[in-house]
Write a structure and sequence with these properties.
With 184 residues, the chain is α+β, with helices and mostly antiparallel strands. The strands form three sheets. Strands 6-5-4-8-9 form a five-stranded mixed sheet.
Length: 184
């Protein structure tokens, strides 16, 4: 499995808007409608990536803890479904239900949203404050498939806690590592 790092969009960047179908509800949703009162976490994931599968339970745990504190979790899959049919919207919905996602799982068929966010890999995490300014981008934690480190979400959790406490977020942020987005 090839490892691709995040592109690390500049901190302070305003979150690009989008209108995408939510595979769980079958409704078109926008960032404006989904954003959280305290912040928004946009995560680029997919169904088949071993890096995503490795951290799915950590993601759902963090969502259950932080959504009630005003942080919106918004997952997006931008993979080419012609060559990677396991990432189709129908199977995205199935994955969301199996994994217990409590957040929308959006399909970016044109890949325009992934390009706007400079997303490179799955998983790729972008945390925005309540003004939709980027305050954290990078890894969930140091865990990777096969490296023996337990996934705790430490890096992202630290950023979430700092955001909620109005404390500075450490500007030294490690890129996420995962499978490359499957471009059309």
């Amino acid at each position: 499995m090839a490892s691709t790092p995040s592109n690390m969009m500049p901190l302070g960047t305003i979150a690009p808007d989008f209108n995408l179908p939510d595979t769980i509800t079958d409704k078109i949703v926008s960032l404006d409608k989904l954003k959280g009162k305290k912040g928004s976490l946009i995560l680029f994931i997919c169904n088949h990536c071993p890096f995503v599968k490795h951290v799915n339970s950590t993601i759902t745990h963090l969502a259950s803890k932080y959504q009630s504190k005003g942080i919106a979790f918004i997952a997006i899959s931008s993979n080419d479904i012609v060559n990677y049919p396991q990432d189709s919207p129908e199977l995205m919905k199935q994955t969301a239900l199996q994994e217990g996602y409590s957040f929308p799982y959006l399909f970016d068929e044109s890949q325009e949203v992934a390009r706007a966010y400079e997303a490179a890999c799955t998983p790729d995490f972008y945390l925005f404050d309540n003004d939709l300014r980027l305050v954290y981008r990078g890894q969930l934690d140091d865990s990777r498939p096969g490296n023996g480190i337990l996934s705790t979400g430490l890096d992202l959790r630290n950023a979430l806690e700092a955001l909620l406490s109005n404390k500075p977020i450490n500007p030294i942020q490690k890129p996420s590592i995962g499978c490359n987005i499957k471009w059309i």
